[in-house]
Design brief:
alpha+beta; 10 helices; elongated; DUF7691 domain-containing protein; DUF7691
């Protein structure tokens, strides 16, 4: 079974602030402009909704209002997808071609490639095993992780230090071509974020 990674460039603090913001105007805009998307999601998860899971709009409203949330852990996925919807509507999609689809331990392999280049401040595996912002309940799927502006600044510093070391020694870490491509894609995300103060990357694995 394959997985996908959805990656967004956005103002991290502003996006997190939407959780519990009680912004009913935002909810109305989403309902008016993206009602068909909400309906399609409800069709996709119709069986779970019949068993008590919130609809896409109900989950979105709970996220924006900071609750209430279903007491069933089986329904928590809807709040994860609602937060993903907020990120997709307020942020910019980033090229994910090296990560969608992916199988097995691909994210871990890319992390090893990052580490080989001295980059430890960020991890693509975090997009699969990180946490949604409080007070959203934990859900395994979709996984969610955040690279803050501080994380990104540190990661780029680490990469530049490795580049200087390679230039001096003339020896680059041996990496498979597909790992190099994925690492370069990650660096591209970080460089775009670096250009905009306060911006970072929020990713979802599903």
């Amino acid at each position: 079974m394959s997985s996908s990674l959805s990656v967004h460039l956005l103002d991290v603090a502003a996006t997190r602030a939407l959780v519990g913001s009680r912004n009913d105007q935002l909810l109305q805009v989403i309902r008016d402009d993206f009602g068909d998307d909400l309906t399609r999601d409800d069709d996709c998860f119709g069986h779970e909704i019949e068993r008590g899971a919130p609809t896409a709009y109900e989950a979105l409203r709970a996220v924006v209002h900071g609750g209430p949330f279903s007491e069933s852990e089986d329904h928590a996925f809807q709040y994860g997808y609602a937060y993903k919807r907020l990120c997709s509507l307020t942020g910019t999609f980033l090229d994910n071609s090296c990560f969608t689809p992916h199988r097995g331990d691909w994210l871990s392999q890319v992390d090893q490639g990052l580490k080989a280049l001295g980059i430890t401040a960020v991890s693509v595996e975090d997009f699969g095993y990180g946490a949604l912002p409080a007070p959203l309940p934990y859900t395994h799927t979709p996984g969610c992780g955040t690279w803050t502006p501080e994380d990104i600044a540190r990661a780029l510093e680490q990469f530049e230090a490795t580049k200087r070391a390679v230039d001096e020694s003339g020896e680059a870490p041996p990496l498979e071509p597909e790992i190099v491509d994925a690492v370069m894609q990650c660096l591209g995300w970080m460089r775009r974020a670096e250009e905009q103060p306060g911006f970072g990357v929020i990713g979802f694995r599903s």
